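Open question from group meeting: does this chain pack into something compact, or does most of it stay loose? Before anyone orders reagents, we agreed to write out a predicted structure and look at it together. Recording both the input and the output here so the notebook holds the full record.
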Amino acid sequence: MVTAELPGDPGGVSAIWLPGVAERTGRTAEEWIALVEASGPDPLDQKRVRDWLRDEHGVRQNTRWAIADVLARKHGWERPTITGYTDGLYAGAKASLRPLHDAVVDLALGLGEDVEPQGRSTYIPLVRATQFAAVAPGPRGTLRVGLRYRDDGPEDPRVEPARNFAQASHWVHLPGDTEPAEATRLEPLLRRAYDQNG
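Structure tokens returned:
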């Protein structure tokens, strides 16, 4: 049987979704893995595996993510560290945003001992009981800070309603030439999101 607890994923997506995969799909995790290996896309291309599972077999979202994750790990893929994800986000032309990113993340981490940064390929979420903020390169050389408010958000000219970004209800775009020390001006905005997601 495919292990539900994988290295680098304790209690994560695989531990949650693999044990009941047979009840949800009619196939065990081992059967799905064998099927993809026999007739599906490259096991290391997780997006294509997820798309194939959805398009060809109607597998639901969280189950396809778990299957693709286990399959890729079986074939040698290792999940990047948070530093690895962050390095990837700020490679090349976006490297100048990294000090500002680090200042915003440090500010969020200072809100409480329960704040945890996590890794994603397109943004870095900041999580308490639930995600309350996310940081990523934004459009036109800006740094995007997504904020998840449970109310209408603050009356602040910097804050705008977010559109399809990292569970954020609102966002702020900091110009790329913002000094990292100026990130402290976001503290009330981050604090509000932190307080609402505990």
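Observations to bring back to the group:
Helices lie at 13-17, 21-25, 29-39, 46-57, 61-74, 82-89, 98-109, 187-196.
The two ends are 36 Å apart (CA to CA).
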